[in-house]
Amino acid sequence: MTDFRIGHGYDVHALADGLRLVLGGVEIPHSKGCVAHSDGDVAIHALCDALLGAAALGDIGLHFPDTSDEFRGIDSRRLLRRVAEMVREKGYQIGNVDCTIRMQRPKLRPYIDRMRETLAADMGIDPDRVSVKATTTERLGFEGREEGVSVSAVALIFRN
């Protein structure tokens, strides 16, 4: 019998002028970027939480605390590769993942395919198992006011 597990992740970062904007492992030209201890890749952080949750391995803060100098400014892709490895060490394979990025600007459609390919490579899965979507909040809430970005992610893992 196959053991299926689903995990959910959610993360939020404030936006500030003059910082790099990195989403899904892709640097995106924009006047604002995420305020964070690491590179602020909110999409990868939500995805890590979804994978860790599915495997009952806690959350990203447990494994990569933002109080540690070891992770200051770290490329979040390194965290995702480590999380995917932890899932495999527990005997699971990644079935598929799905992320929804919420921010008013910039338009993310031109970067979605590269995000999918980058995330898939870091997790060691095919890009057709990775979905990334982007939406605005019609200028409502902190995302709509361009104060921050939020991402929800779900992951399906399995073992036979």
In short:
The chain has 160 residues and is α+β, with helices and mostly antiparallel strands. The chain has five helices and seven strands. The strands form two sheets. Strands 4-1-7-5-6 form a five-stranded mixed beta sheet.
Q: How would you describe this protein?
A:
- With 160 residues, the chain is of the alpha+beta class.
- The chain has five helices and seven strands, in the order ββββαααβαβαβ.
- The protein has helices at 42-54, 60-63, 76-89, 109-123, 141-144, and strands at 3-17, 21-23, 26-28, 32-34, 93-102, 130-135, 148-159.
- It has a five-stranded mixed beta sheet.
- Helix 4 links the parallel strand 5 and strand 6.
List keywords for this structure.
160 residues; two-stranded antiparallel sheet; 7 strands; single chain; alpha+beta; globular; five-stranded mixed beta sheet
